[in-house]
C-alpha cells in the first residue's frame, strides 16, 4: 500500500517524533534491489499514485537463511545511476512460503517513498562497531542492530521517523485506550460488516489512517470513514467516492431511494462521513453518523437496507466485559427500552409482509451483536469477533437456566455458556444471500429508524444497496473471479 511520497502528503502536522528505541517496532530488515526490481517498484508507483494511497504489494524471493522468522520494517535500497544503493523507500515485509530448498518468498506491503533518499553505506557507517559486527548485508537484523539502523536513518533523514511511525501503526494497529476509541472500533466493525452484507469485495475499507490527535470521551468520536483513503479505483472495481450530505448527487449515480436516504441523515446532523462504492451494476453507500460525545452516547446501531429486496437489518452492539468476557443484561439500564424499541420495529415490519414476499429463514429486522471491547484496531479486513442473536433468540436465552451461571445465579452471556449463536461469517452471509432480514420493507420504516437512532444520540452506521440483483449463482461466480 503506497502511503506517501513526502512528509506532508499524509502525515499530520504537529505530531512529535518518537525515537525508534521508544516505540514498539517489529524486526528490521534490509532488501538490496536489482535495477529490474527498482524499475518494477517505479512502475507500481506510477500505477498507484502516492496521493491515492492505494493498496499494492511487491513479492520477491530471497535466500531463506536470512529470512527465518517474523515480519519486518524493511529498508528498501535501490541503485542510483552511479550504482550506489540508496534507501528511497521503507516497507513492511512478511514471509509467505518456501519456494525451494534455499529460497523464501516475501511480500512487501505499505511501500512508502521517503522525502529524500539516504545512502545505505552512510547509514551503516553511523552504526556502532558492535552493531556493524552483527549486521546482515541483506535480510533480517537482530533487534539491537535493527533499532540502530532506524536511528541512523532518522539521523540522516529526520522525516523518516514519521514514515516509521506509520508503518508501525499499519502493521500493529491502533491501540484503544478510551471509550472514544471503542466507538471508533465499533464504527469500523459496522462498516466492514455492511460491505460483507452487500456481498462486495472492498479491501480498501480496512486501510485507514489512525487519528492524528488523542481521542476524548467528551467529544464526538471521529468518523471511521473519514479516516479511510479517499482514493478512487480502476474502472470496473468497487470504487469509493467521498461524499458529504451537502454535495449534489447526480441521479445516474445513485437511485432515488438512496438520495432520500442521504437527505434524511443530512437533516439530522451537521456532518456525515460517506463512501460510495460500485460493483457490477450495484451501488453501495455507507455512512457514519455521530454527533454526540461518547460519554453521553446511548449505544451503537448498524442499519443495512437492500433496496431491491426491501430488506432491512438492524444490529445493536453490546460489549462483553473486558475481564471475564461476559455481558450481564440485568445490569444494563438501557436494555429494557432497547428491547421494546426492537419489538416495535419487528411488529411494524411484520405488518408490511405480503403473502407473495420472498422466503426468509428469519423475516424480522432486529438483531443484537455481543462482542468484546477492542484493545487494538487492526489494519486488516477483520471484523470484531462476536455473537449475533435475533431479538427473539436473545429474549429466549434470558430465560435459559444454562445462562444463570454467574455469581449467585446471575444471568450472563458469554462464549462459554451460550448454546448457539451466529458468528460474523454466518450472519453476514445469510444477509447477503437474502435468507434473513425483512422482505418488502418500506422506505418509511428505514426513515423512522434512521431518525430514531440519531435523535436518541446513538452511534449510527448505515448502508443502502441499490441496483438490480443477480441470482446467487452469478454472485458466487463473481466472488470467485475477484479472489
Question: Can you give a write-up of this model?
Answer:
- By secondary structure, the chain is α+β, with helices and mostly antiparallel strands.
- It has two domains: 166 residues, no CATH class; 308 residues, no CATH class.
- The protein has 14 helices and 18 strands.
- Helix 7 packs across helix 12 and helix 9 packs parallel to helix 13.
- The chain starts with 6 loop residues before the first helix and ends with a helix.
- The N terminus is likely disordered.
Topology at a glance:
Blueprint: H1 7-10, E1 27-32, H2 35-47, E2 58-63, E3 71-79, E4 85-98, E5 103-119, H3 120-125, H4 129-134, E6 139-140, H5 143-156, H6 160-172, E7 174-175, H7 179-197, H8 224-227, E8 241-243, H9 256-268, E9 273-279, E10 282-289, E11 300-306, E12 311-319, E13 326-327, H10 335-351, E14 366-371, E15 376-377, E16 387-390, H11 391-397, E17 413-414, H12 424-432, H13 443-455, E18 459-466, H14 472-482
Parallel strand pairs: 1-3, 11-18, 12-14
Antiparallel strand pairs: 1-6, 2-5, 3-4, 4-5, 7-15, 8-9, 9-10, 10-18, 11-12, 13-17, 14-16
Helix pairs in contact: 7-12, 9-13
Q: Count of DSSP helices? A: 14
Q: How many strands?
A: 18
Number of folding domains? 2
Structural class: alpha+beta
* Biggest sheet features: 8 strands, mixed
Global mean pLDDT: 83
> How would you write the strand order of the largest sheet?
8-9-10-18-11-12-14-16
Percentage of residues in strands? 15-25%
Q: What percentage of residues falls in helices of 4 or more residues?
A: 25-40%
Radius of gyration: 25 Å
Low-confidence segments, given as residue ranges, are 1-24, 231-237, 239-255
What is the general shape? elongated
Q: Give the end-to-end Cα distance, rounded to a whole number of Å.
A: 18 Å
